[in-house]
Amino acid sequence: MTGRRQLAGPAAKRVQHLGDTAVRVAVPEDSGAAGPGALADEIRARAWVGVEDVVAGYESVTVICEPDVGDLDGLGAELAVIEARDPDAREVATVEIPVVFDGPDLAEVAALIAGTEHDVVELMTGSPLDVAMVGFVPGFGYLTGLPAPLSDVGRRATPRSRLPAGSVAIAGGYAGVYPVASPGGWRLLGRTGLVLFDRETPPFAVLRPGDRVRFRAVAEAAAIVELPRSLLRAGASSRAVMLDPGALATIQDSGRVGVAALGVPRAGVADRHSAALANLAVGNEVAAAVLEITQPGVSLRVDASTCVALAGDAPLLIDGSPVPSSAVHPVSPGQVVSIGPLVSGARAYLAMAGGLEVPAVFGSRSSDLLCGIGVGPLRPGDELGVGPARGRARGRIEQPVHQTTLRVLPGPDGRDELVWRALLRASFDVSTASDRTGVRLTPDRSVGAPPAVEGSKAMVTGAVQLPPDGCPIVLGVDHATLGGYPVVAVVAECDHPRLGQLRPGDEVHFEQIDRAEASRLRARAKAELGRLVSGWYPVRAG
Fold first, then answer.
1. Helices 272-281 and 515-532: crossing angle, nearest 10°?
2. Boundaries of CATH 2.40.100.10 in the chain?
């Protein structure tokens, strides 16, 4: 991208920063065919250095950059004046979706429109809807054209933490079908057995922007059932066998880049700082796949000669004997590596020299627990491949300290000064409903709620959403690519590792910083990696 320029006149579009890694540009409603989708295509065609993802939303396009590579100010200047070319016309497909209208919110929606449940069904099936955009989760189409008064029905005050795959719902003028089980705040009217996203078979998603959808009422529909996966069988001769995955153990790397426009979240390690420490300690690249561990710990048998390192506040044992968790340790074929319960923090990371190898999906070995992409939670008996060692192992790790203050920048929807000040003053407790998708917070006092935001827009890790109930949700690495709740703040990229280590019961505070400070803190954290990993393996006494 080019450098900064002075912008003036009505041609400049409104540009907002989304934290310190993304920029959002508004697309006027009267832009016609050259709307958000066409503008997103134009931005991708520019192939700007440092741009990782381009996501079209409601009357907006969000560009997500690689930290310290993309120039956000220069990018914002370019986005303010860029114009999209009219997209090529294509044949419009019509997709019929059979629906059993028995959803838990059907009666409530009928009351909201001062009608009957039959009226709701008639309105949903009476005319076709158009696919405006695809996102949130893979294959989720935002359907426009809902007739009044359904178009006036808003989101739930408190989103549900899990909705079944196939759920048919409405909110904020949209209808949609949840292709996979996921969180959501839309009002559920029914369910379908039609599979709208297949992660194994291209083109993966049934719906595309511009398609038309017709709902058809039926009496019965088969539930969408996830087929049980078979145990992993590593093809490599060097492998590790999972004996006990504990509460949750997954394979994670640096995540998926360039596929957010399909609705595929980035995923990856929740605490990239700790994962990088473990990888550097055994001579891996910082992005190599590692084992992400939660309570109460795991055990696995290593059928190879390798080195292991643990980053996290948890005991490390080899063949049942405790060893220093601050050191790199050799492991011989047949030995069992175990990690005990975490003392602090939510996750620990185990790295093996050469990195862990499981099948890659969309260019990453990570397990996305929101959409079910990747291997998923590990099971007893799973075989994990171990790659060949590529670098020299180090000697020691200085373990990071668990911290619960999150440094934030004002979000694009955080212009309400009363809400902003309340957010910075409040003390929050991490809810047990928190997971890799997002950290749900319970405030010690109501922080209020900003004005509702029209339409769903692209989201980033660390976005602090504020639903109408006033309980913030801080989006984690498995977050949906699009969302409709206001973003009042964004956690600075340097504190994403802190976010990934928050666990239920932690007390959280927000602290405001600016982009310049966020950049300094990011550079300091990167430089600190070299200090926290020291020496060379084997460690010599004296």
1. 30
2. 94-217, 405-528
Residue 363: predicted pLDDT: 92
Residues in the chain: 542
Cα distance between residue 361 and residue 379, in whole Å: 19
- What the block records as the tokens of 541 is 């006494």
Q: What is the DSSP string of 315-377?
A: -EEETTEEE-TTB-EEE-TTEEEEE---SSSS-EEEEETT-EE---BTTB---BTTTTBSS-S
Within the chain, which residue ranges are assigned CATH 3.30.1360.40?
15-81
Res 62 pLDDT > 90: yes
* Neighbour-count burial of 166, counting CB atoms closer than 10 A to its CB (0-12 exposed, 13-18 middle, 19+ buried): buried
Among residues 334, 338, 337, the alpha carbon closest in space to that of 305 is found at 334
Mean per-residue pLDDT for 451-477?
A: 89
Question: Which pLDDT value is given to residue 2?
Answer: 41
pLDDT of residue 6: 40
CB hemisphere CA count around 452 (13 angstroms): 14
Going from the C-alpha of 324 to that of each of 292, 327, 399, the distances in angstroms are 19, 6, 11
Residue 30 confidence (pLDDT) above 70: no
Whether the Cβ atoms of residue 81 and residue 44 lie closer than 8 Å to each other: no
For residue range 103-133, list pLDDT tens digits in order: 999 999 999 999 999 999 999 999 999 988 8
pLDDT digits (tens, 9 = 90+) for 193-252: 999 988 777 777 888 877 899 999 999 887 776 667 888 998 878 999 999 999 999 999
Retrieve residue 390's tokens: 């590529």
Classify residue 483 as exposed, middle or buried by CB count within 10 Å of its CB (0-12, 13-18, 19+).
Answer: buried
**DSSP per-residue codes, 250-319:** EEE-S---S-GGGT------S-HHHHHHHHHHTT--TTS-EEEE-TT-EEEEE-S-EEEEEESSS-EEET
In this structure, which topology does domain 94-217 adopt according to CATH? Cyclophilin (2.40.100)
Give per-residue pLDDT as tens, 165-180.
999 999 989 999 999 8
Q: How far apart are CA 437 and CA 365, in angstroms?
A: 18
- What is the Cα–Cα distance from 15 to 326, expressed in whole angstroms? 46
Please give the CATH topology (third level) of the domain spanning 405-528: Cyclophilin (2.40.100)
Mention every residue, 6+ apart, whose C-beta is less than 8 A from residue 183.
159, 160, 161, 162, 163, 370, 437, 438, 480
Mean pLDDT value across the chain? 89
| φ, ψ for residue 450, nearest 5 deg | -75, 170
**Separation between Cα atoms, residue 123 and residue 70, nearest integer Å:** 46
By the 10 Å C-beta count (0-12 exposed, 13-18 middle, 19+ buried), 508 is classed as buried
455 vs 57: CA distance, rounded Å: 8
Regarding predicted confidence, which is higher, 98 or 93?
A: 98
The helix (H) or strand (E) run that includes residue 46 is: helix 36-46
Please tell me the predicted confidence (pLDDT) of residue 4: 37
CATH of 15-81, one of 3.40.50.620, 3.30.1360.40, 3.30.10.20, 1.10.10.10: 3.30.1360.40
